[in-house]
């Protein structure tokens, strides 16, 4: 196992353990474009989240701002709970949405607000199971 992959697995285990297989050495994906999970593991979690220079809390804030601007709703739903795990409070998440309205526009911020309502349910339980919104639709 490469050093990059080991770092990626460590980051993913801490932020999204639900995505790892039973052996904790690969992402649980199947079906169409299943390799995307492995690519994400190596490039995003190993190549970006494991880099020095920004702590995970800061990376979560940056990531959410970008995802809100892109209106990447499904990724926003995953990253709000990750942000809670990375030490961002619910009030701070709301401020990210408000701030994004000024730069990404009100429609993008409104989309993020709805995604936040769906996955956070006004409590901190989402921090324990960031993918629960996906399980409800399976």
Automatic annotation (TrEMBL):
Record protein name field: Carboxymuconolactone decarboxylase family protein
Organismal lineage: Bacteria, Bacillati, Actinomycetota, Actinomycetes, Mycobacteriales
Domain annotation Carboxymuconolactone decarboxylase-like: ranges: 37-116
Superkingdom, taxonomy of origin: Bacteria
């Amino acid at each position: 196992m490469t050093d990059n992959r080991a770092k990626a697995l460590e980051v993913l285990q801490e932020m999204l353990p639900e995505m790892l297989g039973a052996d904790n050495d690969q992402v649980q994906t199947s079906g169409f474009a299943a390799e995307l999970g492995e690519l994400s593991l190596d490039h995003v979690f190993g190549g970006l989240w494991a880099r020095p220079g920004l702590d995970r809390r800061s990376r979560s804030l940056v990531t959410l701002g970008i995802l809100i601007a892109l209106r990447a709703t499904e990724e926003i739903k995953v990253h709000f709970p990750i942000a809670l795990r990375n030490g961002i409070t619910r009030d701070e998440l709301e401020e990210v949405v408000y701030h994004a309205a000024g730069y990404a526009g009100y429609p993008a911020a409104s989309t993020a607000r709805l995604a936040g309502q769906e996955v956070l349910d006004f409590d901190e339980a989402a921090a324990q199971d960031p993918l629960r919104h996906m399980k409800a639709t399976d």
